[in-house]
Protein: DUF3043 domain-containing protein
Amino acid sequence: MKLPWQKSDDSTPAAGSTRADLSEHTGTAGTADSAGTANASANADGTEPRRPKGYTPPKGRPTPKRREVEIERGIIRDPSAPKSAAQRSAQRKELKKSMSKEEWKAYKAKEREESRQHQREVQKAMDRGDERYLMPRDQGEERGYVRDWVDSRRFLNNWVMPVALGLLVILFIGTWLPEVANVMSMFAMVLMFMFFIEGVWLGSRANKAVRAKFPGTTAAGLGLGFYTYSRATQPRKWRTPKPRVEIGQQV
Structure:
């Protein structure tokens, strides 16, 4: 018989219930561990592993930032993208307003000097024949070979510009000496005919040499022939890119 002042003996079952409650609270972790073990065993057996509810497979790439998504959709403008002429003009006006007259003058002088320095560097690279700075008409191995082919030879077309200047002089002389002007005009016409014949021959020879040097090339043709003719009519010192070979050198 249990007296009123004596403690109850139900402490043991209560402890048992407490342990049961704890096991219920920790049941999720135990379930996850058991699920992981089951998945591992399922994978070992070659079957599809069971996934917990709400499982999302990995995308294989990091989640893009909101700013990147907005730039891709065109919601905001990419600051690293090249600006339009109107935007550059507006930015330049704002910069001018933020400077004094002397500061703006110094800024423009510095800008002009940087532009001249850049142009000099680009021109030097073009003279060297650097493909990154050449004009589209000068790019390509075939065009480089044609330049060397022309620069290593002498042609009658090398005198096209001096003859053109002579024709201008004849036009002025004709106002006072018509007889001399008529003779010089006939001589100039003969030279121009010879220039034309040699130009056709130059284009044909250059295309033949390019096809022999680069079998299967698609760069040969009328355009390459005209490029050869225009190169030959320029004075040697004025040519761009600069000649890389001497006259008479084997190419």
About this structure: Residues 11-42 have pLDDT under 50 and may be disordered. DSSP finds nine helices and no strands in the chain. Residues 86-128 form one domain.
